[in-house]
Amino acid sequence: MKKIASLYILSLLCTPLWAANLSADNRIVESELNIYSARKEALIKPLLDKFSAQYDVKINLVTGKADALLARAKSEGKFSPVDIIITTDVGRLARAKSQSLTQPITATLPDYVTLKDQESHWVALTTRNRPIIINPLTVDADSITSYEDLIKPEFKGRVCIRSSSNIYNQSLVAAMLIQKGEAQTLAWSKGMVENFARRPKGGDRDQIKAVVSGVCDIAVANTYYLAAMRNADETTQAIANKVKVIWPNQSNRGVHLNISGISVAKHAKNTLAANLLIEYMLQKDAQSWYANTNHEYPVDPSIEWSDTLKAMGTFKHETIELNQVGELNGQALRIMDKAGWR
Amino acid sequence: MAIIISKWRELDRWFFIGALISVLLALPVLAILLSYSSLSADLWGHLVDTTLAEYLTNSVLLTLGVGFGSMLLGVTLAWCVTQYSFWGRGVFEWALLLPLAMPAYIMAYTYTGMFDQFGWFDSRSLIGAITFMSLVLYPYVYILAKTAFSSQQRTYQDAAASLGVTHAQYFFKIALPIARPAVFTGMALAMMEALADYGTVAYFGISTFTTGIFRTWFGMGEMQLASQLAGALALFVLLVLSLEKYSRKNMRFYQTQTPAKDNTINTYTNTEATPFISPLLMSVGCFSVLAIAFIIPVLQLCVWAWDYIDISMMDEYLTLVSNSFLLAFSTSLLIIVLALLLSYAQRFSTHPHVSGLTQFAALGYAIPGTVLAIGVLQPLGWLDEQINVVWVFLFDEYIGLVFSGTFVALIFAYCVRFLSVALHNTQNGLERIKPNVDDAVLSLGLGRYRIFSRIHLPLLKKSILAAGILVFVDVLKELPATLILRPFNFNTLAVKAFEYATDERLLAAALPSVTIVLVGIIPVILLTRAMK
Q: Hey, where are the domains in chain B?
């Protein structure tokens, strides 16, 4: 027992030393760039490492949920060490801007960059789409040409989609809200709930698997997940190859579009490196890494897509003001609440 | 007179210590409750009209289900291993603690992945969530009930037997009621954890109070309403805990001696002498629980991890292991010290509010980690600002963030969140020691430190170790608060596992997940050896 007690005291004494040593990483030096990223480390770190090596800038990274990171930046206030905020959804970028957590980007952006905030508070790095995915053996591909078709009575009990807590669905409904108005969006949400094959659960991949296993015939999922499945182990590939992508609303507004994007933090200490990173992320190298490793659509139109993406085909996408999608997120959720979409 | 005055001072000192720690740890909860400064009728109206009823129903069902499930498993298993001898008892005694090292959401992902693979059935339901959570949370009940059962005096049993009481009657009429505080404590911990769970219910698509909090915050962007919901959750837990405490306020169970080792276990070896279940059934039962809650998912994770191991990542992986271990180890030591101080404050101080204060300080356990983290950030952010104001005045430069974004914030959050776990154990241990032991020793002129080191510590050893291990494993598994509060470039195993799992990359998540379990096993084994 004595031994345990002395071990105790020793460790207690050591704790602050150890903590101080590790937290020494927090010092803000000019050649360091501090990033809060809502993108998972594995999906962003390789690019950041390349940037770090090329420009001799030390990158410090914290990943986490977008809103939680924004709340952290907010409570840290003007002493916040964060220079760059990276997120996977336009809603969060809009929210960061409206909470005064960002500042205008000063980097010279390439001409093709159209997906950005009007005051340059954020810029898109990649785009992602949310098409309809069907089992071609059980569903006639011609019977679905739009999101609106999903609520046809013939699809009762045949549609799988994840929870409305998920940001991709919130953005999807928010975008519809802008283009179709509240009444129609509520009617559509109710129609969706009517046609659900099961209570929404699991992630996007689970919906695709459910289509193949026969739980449902139709799903809505981001291309990025399907593409990843088509490049995974053999069993998963076999599942993913059994479904077909339908690009909805091609004759009118286009498929739902979202972005992953980047902002310079309001109280950034190293705006120089921050803007440099943004320029770097929009260069061909980085853009083609996104297209080939993450299977996201690059914003640079000159970059060739990965074979998986090419195989899914080309499409027309929505062209609405993305900040608005972010602003209407809450309202979209309320509509889904009312429709009973959990 | 002089004695009275000095004694008063001492009591007062204990109140002061207790109050100081409690208030400090209660700050984040208070910050969350401050959100009630303004209420939005529109938003609350929307919740009441649409989702609130469902949140409440599901949360209540989940919590009660997990409470019942973990009680059933924990009490039965603890009773078997403390009372009977059967094949494998020595191993089961400690091995049954292992599922504790399994984060509930990892369990959920693993089994769902397995069932998907074989196309069996869909476990993603409320019943599924209750089952998985009970399977990983029953050790809270088990560890406390085991300590309680094994420290019950043999004399009760002998007296009962001489009066012709059967073993089954003895269990229900005597053993269980005496162990009630311990069992309830374990259940309360399991239930609070279930109530605050986000990972499992979110994946299963079950709308609970916790998923509701995040919907409100992330989806609607209404952080204040989310904080209000979290505050309501905390107050509800406070109410239930107080009710339970009140209901047993006149009950006290003491042990007067450390039970001798050979007395603790009966040696019923033939089926006739075991009125409950046969020894074979006990072995099979213990093994089944262990297999379902631990062996099968761990083996599955190992198989997945094997396909994914990349030697070039070894350095990074070892850093993860040492980060996680050091953090969990140092935090659990700190929390034990805090829990002991608070328990003693409660024992020595006669101040009427000390118990209530402690109760309040331990509320963090019921609050979802993410919300709690924000509660931690707010007072620390304020403090950082004040420090900078002073610093500029003194040295004409800013010092930057001293607390936010450092280990101070992270460890503080762990203390708030997990104090409850340690406190329940130490309080339970202390409550079993008669106060007149203290008086006797004091009258011999020995100080309180001596009482602690000579008398209490040997009696408390098991409780302290149990508290240590529970907190260690909890910190190791902790995710949401770690995710938000950790310093730059600092990852833990739980963070890694979570990032892969939520990206729906189960195979990549397997290695960090199984490592959490393996690192969690080390203290379980140490604990068992120390208990012998």
A: 2-531
Q: Which CATH class is domain A129-256+314-339?
A: alpha beta
* The architecture CATH gives domain B2-531: Orthogonal Bundle (1.10)
Least confident of A36-50, A133-147, A314-328, B346-360: B346-360
Asked if B341 and B426 count as a contact pair (C-beta separation under 8 A), the reply is: no
Q: Does B499 touch chain A (CB under 8 A)?
A: yes
For testing contact with chain B, the best of A9, A78, A333, A335 (most B CBs within 10 A): A333
Q: Enumerate the domain spans of chain A.
A: 29-127+258-311, 129-256+314-339
Residue B155 predicted with pLDDT over 90: no
Say if residue B245's pLDDT is above 90. Answer: no
pLDDT of residue B292: 95
CATH topology of domain A29-127+258-311: D-Maltodextrin-Binding Protein; domain 2 (3.40.190)
Please give, rounded to a whole number of angstroms, the shortest distance from the CA of A338 to a CA of chain B: 6
pLDDT above 70: percentage of residues in chain B: 90
The mean of the pLDDT values for chain A is 90
Q: What is the model's pTM? A: 0.87
Rounded distance, CA B302 to CA A135, Å? Answer: 33
